[in-house]
Amino acid sequence: MSGNINRQILLVEKPSGKLGPEHFKMVENAVPEPKDGEALLRVRYISLDAANRAWMHGATYRSAVEANSVMAGGAIAEVVSSKAPELAAGDIVFGDTGWQEYAAVPAKHLTKMPKLEPMTHLLSVFGIAGLTAYFGLLEIGKPKEGETVVVSAAAGSVGSLVGQIAKIKGCLVIGIAGGADKCNWLTSELGFDAAVDYKDGAVFKALRAAAAKGIDVYFDNVGGDILEACLPQMNNYGRIACCGAVSQYDGAPAAHGRAACPA
Description:
This protein is of the alpha/beta class. It contains 6 helices and 13 strands. The chain folds into 2 domains: 2-112, Alpha-Beta Complex (Quinone Oxidoreductase, Chain A, domain 1), CATH 3.90.180; 130-248, NAD(P)-binding Rossmann-like Domain (Rossmann fold, 3-Layer(aba) Sandwich).
């Protein structure tokens, strides 16, 4: 512990519009002392997720993040010291540590993780992103071989895994992402069959061309205009996995009607 200093990132103000650096500040406090049943953790990697933004709006599946508090977030951390019998120094755990270097967390709220390299896999393919992709697609989307699967925010942590799982299941996979570089990455590296660049402004037409047989499964990470473009192209008995709505997280008004879809 460098001088017993704990650097922390605080949410100083809840944003009413677009989130920016001005809504955060770094402070330094003393490293906490663990109580009975707790472990002192040194944070190794913080998971930066779209859900972090939603927590600032209000209570979701967890309590809201309040102004002038340590920004909430899950992390992979190493146990520095423990006052809980089930954990020992050197153990690797996952828990809600918040955005800070050190945290004292009850052991009952921590999940012991295997030691593997790269450790970042514990936050991605083996972590929240991987679990979200796996269960969201397979349990909700229920893709069948030969079906067409469309994924929005396809170059993101969840979407990129959804597309690869869908390919393993023998589906035609179309990703929607922003920018030529991301779209090229989807098709050249991840094996997507096609990619639609929403920044080109013609999502509906591009999707209609790529998904000539319609959409059987839509894995939605963004909501808004992209969802509006997909809805008219869903096949009978199609399934939509509503995972996120990142287009709405900065307070943008919800889309109405089918403005993104030409008549």
